[in-house]
Amino acid sequence: MTENGIEQVYRAEYGRAVAVLVGHFGDIDLAEEAVQEAFAAALPRWAEDGVPPSPAGWIITTARNRAVDRLRRESTRSGREAAAVREWAAGVAVSAESEALAGGGATGKRVEDMADDQLRLIFTCCHPALAPAARVALTLRLLGGLTTGEIARAFLVPEATMGQRLSRAKGKIRDARIPYRVPRDEDLPDRLGAVLAVLYLIFNEGYAASSGPGLTRDDLAGEAIRLTRLLVALMPDEPEARGLLALMLLIEARRPARATAEGDLVLLADQDRTLWNRDHITEGQALLRDCLRRGRPGTYQLQATINAVHADAATAAATDWPQILQIYDHLTAVAGGPVVALHRAVAVAEVHGPALALAVVDGLEGLERHHVWHTVRADLLRRLGRKEAAVAAYGKAAELTANAAERRYLEWRAAG
């Protein structure tokens, strides 16, 4: 098997393997190290003997046995880990080779149990006791399998800084004894919201990078979609999880048209819609229809509905802006706030004109340090013929953004 093939298995199975081992031993560091050792062992072994019938099973079993060997060597360990050692030493563990050849349960667990392990790990990574930045980093590391260096590059921080962030997050889980479990039913809505927010944050950073030379970071957007698919598979009856996946797919469908060959930004109104990914749109709309049939609308479902309306329009001029404004009114009632109000103002401009929209934007508080607020305001001023004010607003937006592609567009707007 090639290194590229190993990497594909790594991306697909790393999170599941870590989740299973954390479930066994209750130690994130031990689980990570053992899984990494298993993948290192797989490369020469699979190149010589071929890929086993169950690559995931081989990895999980090998990692489990490596963890047991390490615990046996560390005689000072006690508690749950010592109990695990005694259990495996008594003969519960079987060889990685025999299980992999059988192609079956790598740990003696049912598929449903492995899914439970992954679900518990997702909620552990996104526990409210952790800082938001730590939740994102830990989710990408433990469930996405991204290296510390990859996460650091994605968020433009030194690798050492990201390593410290991950280490502190894992230490917080250990020291605060954050439980490795799915929340109780009464706590689930709030906790699920935190998980969805982390996944959406990862997606947004990939689709519209907050900083750096490129407009997007395709790897992060793709990873967010993959992890959200996993969550939907684990929690199929949660409409907001489906709504988030639909939202991601409908937005991601526009990626091929969002930038020129030189990497310059293309606004939604100017995009070549024949380039949009119809498979993503079809899947997103099907997910959304399933959500709406459940009759439990939430913020992600409503945002997905707005993007579905955009996807239905063959041209920008054909966009049903009154319907979009109506959905924004519903979204405001469900989850109001200045950011929602800012995006709603764009729809107000299309339905009622830029003057009314500008009054809405100027009445918002707390967004003056965000470049999007200045960008929306600049566009409204331009449409009203207030040239000097528009130039100043475009300039302020360009000053505040850390994304080079966005900055080029805003500077071009100001100059034009």
Automatic annotation (TrEMBL):
SUPFAM superfamilies to which the protein is assigned, alphabetical: Sigma2 domain of RNA polymerase sigma factors, Sigma3 and sigma4 domains of RNA polymerase sigma factors
Classification via InterPro entries: DUF6596 (IPR046531), RNA_pol_sigma-70_dom (IPR014284), RNA_pol_sigma70_r2 (IPR007627), RNA_pol_sigma70_r4_t2 (IPR013249), RNA_pol_sigma_r2 (IPR013325), RNA_pol_sigma_r3/r4-like (IPR013324), WH-like_DNA-bd_sf (IPR036388)
Keyword Kinase attributed: no
Domain RNA polymerase sigma-70 region: residue ranges: 10-75
Pfam entry (one): DUF6596
Keyword Endoplasmic reticulum: no
Domain DUF6596 positions: 191-290
Domain RNA polymerase sigma factor 70 region 4 type: 122-172
Keywords, comma-separated and alphabetical: Sigma factor, Transcription, Transcription regulation
NCBIfam families for the chain: sigma70-ECF
PANTHER family linked to this entry: BLL6612 PROTEIN, BLL6612 PROTEIN-RELATED
Family: Belongs to the sigma-70 factor family. ECF subfamily.
Descriptive protein name: Sigma-70 family RNA polymerase sigma factor
